[in-house]
Amino acid sequence: MKKPWAGRFKEKTSKTVESFTESISFDHRLWRYDIEGSIAHTKMLCKQGIITKADSEKIINGLEIIAKEIGTGKFKFREDLEDIHMNIEAALIKKLGNVGGKLHTARSRNDQVALDLRLYLRAEIKEILSLIKKFQKILLNMATNHLNSLMPGYTHLQRAQPVLFSHHLLAYVEMLQRDNERFKDALKRINLLPLGSCAIAGTALPIDRGYVAKLLDFKGISQNSIDAVSDRDFAIEFLSSAALLIMHLSRLAEELILWSTEEFRFIELPDAFTTGSSIMPQKKNPDVAELIRGKTGRVYGNLLSLLTVMKGIPLSYNRDLQEDKLPVFDTVETVKSCLIVLNEMLPSIKVNTKRMHETAGDAYSTATDIAEYLVKKGVPFRKAHKITGKIVLYCIKEKKKLEELSINELKKFSPLIKKDIYSHIEAEDSVKAKTSRGGTAPDEVRRQIRRLDNLIK
Q1: How confident is the model at residue 19 (pLDDT cuts 50, 70, 90)?
Q2: Is 414 a catalytic residue?
Q3: Quick check: 320 pLDDT over 90?
Q4: Given 14, 19, 25, 277, which residue is catalytic?
Q5: Who's near 408: CB < 8 A, 6+ residues apart?
Q6: Does residue 104 have an active-site annotation?
Q7: Buried-most residue among 36, 89, 188, 232 (CB within 10 A)?
Q8: Looking at domain 6-105, which of 1.10.275.10, 3.40.50.920, 3.90.1150.10, 3.40.190.10 is its CATH number?
């Protein structure tokens, strides 16, 4: 088959160039969206009297047959036809002759590929949102089951203050909720129809873009034909949202790795989601979590890749834009696979609540509670902080825990300290006292669970 632009050229395209410029090896996955868009376009051409009803029916029937052939693996993609658009169009023309050639009326591959990518991302984001919601529910369920489980909270990876394990888990639910909102917001800009912009300037034919938008369930149409064919902001926005999502997943993966070490012993990862060593029989390696952490770099790289592609492109369409698909496709697959494996793994994790509880009050983690106790007695916070620091230093020297100090020892640091201080320096008491909105007190965590549960229903 001759190239669609063959009339302008005297020589055939070099085989080397065909191999270098093809995208069918990866954009074939857009086939269902290409056909969906083509059917809607055909219906519009018929409605507007640009093609006959008979031709419209033949084209739509031909496209549906091609869809079945691709779906069943019978369709043979050809590299010399470059991309999914020309592969489908060539097959249609082969089936229908000149009638098939009418499909491309009032459109260009420039607006066609922009349409396909938007349809693809719209569908994939909906799947990602579903996976995020499932992940949030798993975390909420874990949090509900651990409303009384204490753990040491960390800053700088040093034990800081005791918190509820459920409170810690809810931090990830909050992150995922922001991810959810970002993807939903991105859908607003993805869900605009570019078709009808043609190559750059629109068309003199009497098309009805609003009708196509309605058929394809787009909320609106692009308003500038130059921008419509050269815009990839929507893809970059998706990649940016995905980068933030996988960053959150990577942070959780890192904690799972740390918590499963002998040094922490907070959790035990399920055998089905770990691997062993080829030389050390005792090893149980957190490979799944490590791979999630590692794959984060790919998603970051995909975002930077497309940003770099776009940074120097003059208006409007340039072939550089062919490089938009691989970063998007790879990110979709990577993010979905990470969410799927986490959704399967997390419910099977064994939590060592005893170990967590034992360490929650270590490292003088309730020292801030002593400072706040003094504040309630009228001591300025900075002075209370200094007094408490001296108490901690004394404990270190005497090799004692805060709760092991006698009242006489404590009074040496401030005469305001009374016996009621002992109800402030146990880990359980510390957690119960943190009743500020968003704090780690059990009642407050219950409220957070109810709020999040209502948000993600």
Answers
A1: confident
A2: no
A3: yes
A4: 277
A5: none
A6: no
A7: 89
A8: 1.10.275.10
